């Protein structure tokens, strides 16, 4: 489909134009729904292509309704990782407990999904790529809202005007910075840092996760299949965010290596793999909390607006639900009332999910010997505990049906 085709609806009427920055989870999901509601959508992504593979992510609760409505649930069911066992180890490497994953993640067996991040983004992209314009290897350089629309210049050259711009560009969103200023104001550091990377599966692990804990430190090996590489995670408590390390991979490697220098189990081998890893992902564990998600004709969705942190396991689900709610709120409304409706209908769901975790209190990563001993006791007794009652945070929203499709 050419740009001319995209810019008019079936009756030849000009469609409202929207630029979405970011093509991961929130971006393509939003593009899908906005296209269905009659918008002409362009997505700009700074990476050269959609990233495949990746760490496992959960799609749960209300987010399952979103992917079902998009018609991609069967594909995602086929891609389900089906993690079978979660084994916790003490500091000396002995086993504390081995449990079914849903007992500790809050997921619902046979319903909730865990897929490789690339399988989710691939399914979302495939659902929308024929109807939406994608600009890879480019990004927004400037945004100007002083005219009748949003004037955008692109890093790769060229400028265009859109009716709306949406930032779906993740935790460190540049769109948010354009709109509201530096990230520090909205960044809620949760007291941990983590490094993620892949390493060869020399451990004989299959569809399982093993996690070693010492107070304030955790090392995990996550085998999503039988022969694939394993995902390694090194997570540790650190009272202040290490700003110097965030942009310096060498400093990140040194910080992780010194933090885990005396650790046992498989950690020495993990540190050796970390030194050579070409896919090291290091960040602080944090949330984004904002009083407003929009300004003028620009709004935010997904991690850019309300990252809940990977400790909640809810980032992708919030991104999917947020995209559905934002698009539906704009359907048949002007942007001012559409953005207001988006906040009104979605904020409580976001809050519930963000409140699942507080600073330094992640159940999986106790920071003191006492808290770790309590956590281990709890794990040993898990099978004897009654299941939680009530509606979990990730299912606490029933999706409204928005206006009929264009
Ligand atoms: C190790 C780890 C484990 C996780 N585990 C889980 C889990 O189990 N369950 C779960 O639900 N969530 C999990 N998450 C979180 C989940 O990955 C995110 O919450 C989710 O991907 C958010 O989607 P998003 O589309 O809002 O942002 P992102 O996935 O961060 O995507 C942002 C996109 O914007 C692009 N971009 C960035 N800047 C620009 C720019 N200036 N211009 C153009 N494009 C740009 C990026 O390249 C990227 O494609 C985990 C995260 C990590 C790091």
From TrEMBL:
Residues 17-345 form the FAD-binding domain. Keywords: Monooxygenase, Oxidoreductase. It comes from the Bacteria. One of its GO terms (molecular function) is monooxygenase activity. SUPFAM superfamilies: FAD/NAD(P)-binding domain. The keyword Oxidoreductase applies. Transmembrane segments: none annotated. Signal peptide: none annotated. This is FAD-dependent monooxygenase. It comes from Streptomyces coerulescens. The lineage of its organism: Bacteria, Bacillati, Actinomycetota, Actinomycetes, Kitasatosporales.
């Amino acid at each position: 489909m050419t740009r001319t085709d995209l810019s008019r609806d079936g009756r030849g009427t000009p469609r409202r134009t929207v630029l979405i920055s970011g093509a991961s989870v929130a971006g393509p999901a939003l593009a899908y729904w906005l296209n269905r509601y009659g918008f002409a959508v362009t997505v700009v992504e700074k990476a050269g292509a959609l990233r495949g593979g990746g760490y496992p992510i959960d799609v749960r609760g209300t987010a399952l309704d979103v992917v079902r409505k998009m018609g991609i649930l069967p594909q995602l069911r086929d891609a389900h990782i089906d993690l079978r066992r979660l084994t916790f180890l003490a500091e000396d490497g002995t086993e504390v407990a081995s449990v079914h994953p849903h007992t500790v993640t809050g997921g619902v067996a046979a319903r909730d999904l865990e897929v490789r991040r690339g399988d989710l983004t691939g399914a979302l992209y495939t659902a929308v790529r024929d109807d939406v314009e994608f600009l890879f290897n480019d990004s927004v350089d400037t945004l100007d809202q002083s005219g009748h629309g949003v004037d955008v210049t692109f890093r790769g050259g060229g400028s265009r005007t859109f009716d709306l711009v949406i930032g779906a560009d993740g935790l460190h969103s540049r769109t948010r910075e354009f709109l509201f200023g530096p990230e520090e104001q909205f960044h809620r550091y949760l007291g941990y840092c983590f490094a993620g990377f892949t390493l060869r599966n020399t451990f004989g692990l299959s569809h399982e996760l093993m996690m070693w804990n010492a107070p304030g430190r955790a090392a995990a090996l996550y085998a999503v299949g039988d022969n694939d590489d394993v995902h390694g995670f090194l997570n540790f408590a650190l009272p202040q965010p290490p700003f110097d390390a965030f942009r310096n991979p060498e400093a990140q490697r040194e910080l992780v290596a010194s933090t885990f220098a005396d650790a046992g189990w498989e950690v020495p081998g993990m540190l050796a793999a970390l030194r050579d890893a070409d896919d090291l992902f290091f960040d602080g564990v944090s949330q984004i909390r904002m009083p407003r998600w929009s300004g003028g004709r620009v709004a935010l969705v997904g991690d850019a607006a309300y990252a809940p942190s990977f400790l909640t396991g809810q980032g992708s689900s919030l991104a999917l639900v947020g995209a559905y709610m934002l698009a539906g709120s704009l359907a048949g409304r002007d942007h001012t009332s559409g953005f207001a409706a988006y906040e009104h209908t979605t904020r409580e769901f976001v809050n519930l999910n963000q409140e699942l975790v507080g600073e330094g209190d992640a159940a999986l990563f106790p920071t003191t010997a006492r808290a770790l001993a309590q956590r281990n006791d709890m794990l040993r007794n898990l099978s004897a505990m009654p299941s939680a009652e009530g509606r979990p945070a990730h299912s606490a929203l029933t999706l409204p049906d928005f206006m009929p499709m264009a």
